[in-house]
Each structure stands twice: as C-alpha cells, then as structure tokens.
Specification:
Elements: E1 16-21, H1 31-42, E2 48-55, E3 76-80, H2 86-92, H3 96-99, H4 112-124, H5 134-147, E4 152-157, H6 161-172, E5 178-182, H7 199-215, E6 218-221, H8 224-233, E7 238-240, E8 261-266, H9 276-288, H10 290-295, E9 296-301, H11 306-314, E10 321-323, H12 329-337, E11 341-345, H13 359-366, E12 370-373, H14 379-387, E13 390-393, H15 398-414, H16 429-444
Parallel strand pairs: 1-2, 1-4, 2-3, 4-5, 5-6, 6-7, 8-9, 8-11, 9-10, 11-12, 12-13
Helix pairs in contact: 1-16, 5-6, 6-7, 9-15
Amino acid sequence: MSFTDSTAKVQIVDFKKVLIVTYYWPPAGGPGVQRWLKFAEYLPEYGIEPIVYTPKNPSYPMIDNSLLEQSPKGLEVIKTPIWEPYRLAEFFNPKSKDYKAGRFEKKENQSLPTRLSVYIRGNFFIPDARKFWVKPSVKFLGNYLKENQIDVLITTGPPHSMHLIGLELKRKYSDLKWIADFRDPWTQISYHSELKLTKNSEKKHKELEEAVIKTADCVLATSFIDAENYRKIGAPEAEVITNGFESDDFEIKKKIQNQKFRISYSGNLESARNPVELWKALKELTDQNTEFKNQLEINFYGILSAEAEETIIENELSKYLKKHGYVNHREAVEGIVNSELQLLTNFPDSKSKGIIPGKLFEYLAARNPIISIGPSDGDVSKILNRTDAGKHFAHSDREGMKTYILEVYSDFKSGRPKPESNSIQQFSRKEITGKLALTVARIGGWD
C-alpha cells in the first residue's frame, strides 16, 4: 500500500492496525471525542483499521448521546474498568466536576473546599486523576499486544495519563511504534498555572511531559506553534494534524430572517476566556445605535461561566442574552449556522498563541463571519487571514471590535452576500484524516 498525497486513492493490499488509547469516547460530549471518532470513521479508506481502547465506566463532564449514533459500524472498541477519585471529590465539592474539563473559578471567588480540591488535583494526581488507569491498562494492553498484531499505537490526551500508558508500553516493547497526539498542550496550557503546584510537582509534570515527547516516535499537535514547542523539547518528529469539521453536518439551510442580528458562541465559556472588552463594545453600540439595539441577540450553546454572565449583566446586555445550555452537537451546529456573527475567544496570555479551538473549524464550515479574540499573532489569526473568514482582535481592542461588528451588521441590514471564504475544504475531517494516514504510514514503516 502506498500514499502520494492526502487525497490520493490508495490500493489496499492488506489493512494495517492501529490501537487508539483515548479517555473520551461516546457518549462523552465535546470536541475532544469528535477528533478521533471521525478519524476512526475515515482511516479504513486509507487501509488502516482502528481499534479503540477506552474506559468502561468513565466520569465525563458532558454527555452527548447523539454521538453514539456516529460510532463507525464494525469498529472494535475494547473497554476496561477505571477508578477515578473525581466521584469522591464531587461528593464533597460539586464544583470539582468543572476542573476535569479545565474550567476554574477566579482565585478570589474560590471557596476553601475549591482551593483544597485544586491543590489536591494538581499535586497528588500527576498528571491528572486518571493516573490510576495507567498501571492496569499497561498490564492489559501488554497481554493484548502479545496476542494481536498492532502496527502502531496512538495515545491521545488530555487527559495526559493516556500518554503515560504509551510511555510504559514503549519502554516494555521497544519495537512498538508509538504516536502521541496532544489535542491540548500539557504544561503549556493556560490553566496549568492555576493548579497551585509545589516546585516538586511542577518538576514532576515537566519530567513526565519531556519523557513522553522524547520517547514517542512522533508527536501530533493541533497547531503550528505547539508543534514547534514539541520539537524544542526534543520530539523526534512533530506533525501538525489540526481539528476539522464534518462536511455532512453542515448541509443545513440557514433560516432566513431579518429580525435579529444573532451573535453566537458554541461551547463552554469559562472566566479565563471572558471577552470583557467585547461586552463593553456591545454596550456602547446599543447605547449609540437604536436599530442595532432593537435587533441584537447573543446566543450561547454551551455552559456560560458565572463570571462571564456577570460581566454581560454589568454591561446591561442581559435582555439580549439567550442561554441554550449544553446541547447536543447537531443543535450546536444549527445554532452557529443560523447566526450572523460567530464568537471565538481564547486565553489572553501569549502561551495561548498555539491554541486553535476545535470550534473554529465548525465556524468555518458554517460560513458566517467570525470575530475572534485572543493573543495577537497566534495560529487562529493566521487561519482567519488565510481563509478570509473573519477578523482577530486582542482582548483590549474594543474599538477594533466595534468597527468590525458594525461592518458585519451593515452587510446584514443591506442583505449583501458574504464574501466566499477561501480554502475551507482543507479542514474537512476527511481531508485531515488523509494527512494523518500519511503520518501513520510513515511511522509504521509501510509508506
């Protein structure tokens, strides 16, 4: 079997097998599960048979039963039990459920139980609370590898404990080819600094991260900046395999209406990503423009943090706010398709330049203008510039945001067609799986 490019038709002589170790799998909700769910669907078209290894009884922060229907028919899914201390933590402090999704309250708002939970999570469960699944998984998969031909092992994190499973298996079986997929960074992710780590704990995190990155045959990154950071740490190879969108999901006709100018956000908006200056910009626009005031609508399809909602209320925008709560994936897609402006936010610090939220690609597929807020000169702004799909602003650029919102609003009022975005199809899941297949084939030695 050979590959020439990501869209090439290949002649499949015999299927190669890859074992994918992932914590998130349907019915888990959120973008973390969709990445490998779709890869598993399309990899067989490139002569690669995926086998999934995942927990039997996980504690997911979000559930989306609609994703169960998308699991590829005939896919082998192996499950073993997991013990997670989160269930005990949630009994004493219900807010701890948020921490496994990377959502933290502002330090000044944290109660004593919350501060204690965060301290324990960061210093006693390294790299995370799924660490107790590592040892039994290494034992189980060691036996599985002896009895089954697996050509490449793939671990995907977070949770980064999944990579420790790969690390231990690679140390036991040096000939095993291993790819470590980092959907998010480890110590470089913004909320890592919120874990109240001791010096010894911080050192342990970095040592484990370095061991994974240096030992894996290849590290996958979802952004260009992250890939470069992994190379600096010592990755033998680092490839960029971005997230993407499923083309079929967006065969939805937009509901024609001219009553509301709908700004929509899909996903969870935690306090650390709260675009404070945007709310101030919208407050000024509603004060200055009566027509805009009468047509504005702000939609959230996901969890809106209390701190972010508080800022919206402070800027007298609560009457425009529509909270839909956590919805299934299809409802979220319908929400962003039926919008006039899509909101994307990132953490304000420079460490976040390499974060490309998975929702960006679905926003591209929805083909409505995007207003993005985050650190300057990051990978998100590069993709927006390349595709002409929207504009990116620093968190402090209130005037720039106002100007762009008025520009999009003017197009909405006049009924002018939106400019066609460029090069969006390259981010379809099927196209990206082709690039992944090339990488897997090279690491597996059958390209």
